[in-house]
User: Fold Transporter substrate-binding domain-containing protein from Lactobacillus crispatus.
Amino acid sequence: MHKKSLLTILIVVLFTFSLTGCKQNKKQNVYQTVKTSKTINWGVKADTPLFGSMSIKTGKINGFEIDLANALTHEMLGKNAKANFVTTTANTKIQLLKNKNIDAVIAAMTITPERKKQVEFSKPYFPAGQSIMVADKSSIKYIKDLNNKKVLVVKGTTAADAIHKFAPKAQILQFDDYGQAFAALKAGQGDAFVTDNGILAGILRDSSGYKLVGGNFTNQPYGIAVNKGQTQMCDHINQALTKLEKDGTYNRLVKKWFGNIPGMNIKEIEKH
Assistant:
């Protein structure tokens, strides 16, 4: 009898624990959480000029995506709501979402089929794509002009594949990072530097004697990511984005951050 009683108690305890565990593991509704807390924790970039970079003067992250995240937060949750910013990288942003350290990612994140398997994406908020940087005196105007030219790219990006597709006779030289590639362009080691238009715009902000040409020759738009299954959060982000586009806030931020970049056609970015 004693052994049977212990067995019965053990079964009851395990059964109760399993029920409790189910409740604890129930998927969190992120939108309801942020609505209650009046706070959204955004994963952002801190090393990408114009989008999100650390200011030496203020010690704070600023950029187009930071301003847009603030505007979205207030549109979604009210003027007294707060946007918190958590620095992310290409390798950490999805994991931070999965671990619930952040509620959403707005960090120059290209919408791809592979990423859609892990996260929910908002509608595109920035029409990113591959673009071309050349010296002011260069005769290069379009992607086809890169044939038989030396083109500088960064390892691990999609630039090399894009050039092979659109300018198959180009000679491609690869570098470890954007700084090295731009230094090579300045040193005359190549005729053009190709990568994401937004990254090139950030480099141009602090450099003279160079320009963007030809517009984007690929279409790789950025989207805001939330954890898989958080459709309510995604829907409210989309609604807020649409409102900011209609009331002129979006275009004002585009003009603020990209309006003075040589060769950057903000008409391609603005919402009309």
User: Anything to note?
Assistant: The chain has two domains: 37-128+221-268, 129-219.
